[in-house]
């Protein structure tokens, strides 16, 4: 395969099947995921925007439900392989509304689902987990990342929203680029990761210093 050629991922080709104004349909070839709450509830709506689910204008969207924390996330993504040792650029037109943390495109090496990234606090390298934020109105956004040599040459790419608001994206493209194209330096979910770490440390300190007596020893 000639990896110098342009790889285009048209949304219209991926979004197959009947549309519904009442639901967010995940298009064929894509996966969707969101932060988990207990008890279980819907945290994000993910899929093709119902108002734009017609041939020629389909748009992916992620929308928060209720009040979300900055470390919570909703995402749509797909994984590819065969890019070992390549520098790739993932691009689309992206629009956002009501964002209070971060929303945009993401590229990372490997197969890890994007909805797991906010708790993925062990990876130090920004290139393994890069993102580029969207705009209040439609704008061209791209993320450039190096895929390590060896293995399957796998990469996961998609659209993600941290915290509250809604993000839309259309006109997706994936292409192999040369070394002259600079890498994206923003580490996706870095702020959320720092917040999660701080919350864990704070809770651990509180748990250590605050006695918690047993409950209902009389078995009432």
Automatic annotation (TrEMBL):
Q: Which UniProt keywords apply?
A: Signal
* Segment forming the signal sequence: 1-20
Q: Please give the name of this protein.
A: Uncharacterized protein
Organism whose genome encodes this protein: Roseateles paludis
Q: Which lineage ranks, top first, belong to the organism behind this chain?
A: Bacteria, Pseudomonadati, Pseudomonadota, Betaproteobacteria, Burkholderiales
């Amino acid at each position: 395969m000639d990896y110098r050629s342009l790889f285009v991922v048209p949304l219209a080709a991926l979004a197959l099947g009947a549309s519904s104004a009442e639901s967010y349909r995940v298009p064929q070839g894509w996966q969707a995921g969101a932060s988990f709450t207990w008890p279980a509830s819907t945290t994000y709506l993910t899929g093709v925007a119902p108002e734009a689910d017609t041939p020629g204008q389909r748009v992916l969207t992620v929308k928060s439900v209720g009040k979300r924390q900055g470390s919570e996330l909703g995402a749509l993504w797909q994984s590819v392989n065969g890019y070992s040792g390549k520098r790739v650029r993932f691009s689309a037109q992206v629009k956002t509304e009501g964002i209070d943390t971060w929303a945009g495109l993401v590229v990372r090496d490997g197969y890890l689902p994007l909805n797991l990234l906010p708790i993925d606090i062990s990876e130090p390298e920004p290139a393994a987990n890069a993102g580029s934020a969207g705009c209040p109105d439609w704008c061209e956004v791209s993320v450039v990342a190096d895929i390590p040599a060896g293995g399957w040459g796998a990469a996961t790419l998609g659209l993600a929203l941290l915290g509250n608001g809604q993000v839309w994206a259309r006109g997706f493209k994936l292409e192999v680029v040369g070394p002259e194209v600079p890498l994206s330096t923003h580490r996706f979910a870095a702020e959320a990761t720092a917040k999660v770490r701080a919350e864990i440390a704070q809770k651990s300190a509180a748990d250590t210093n605050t006695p918690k007596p047993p409950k209902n020893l009389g078995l009432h």
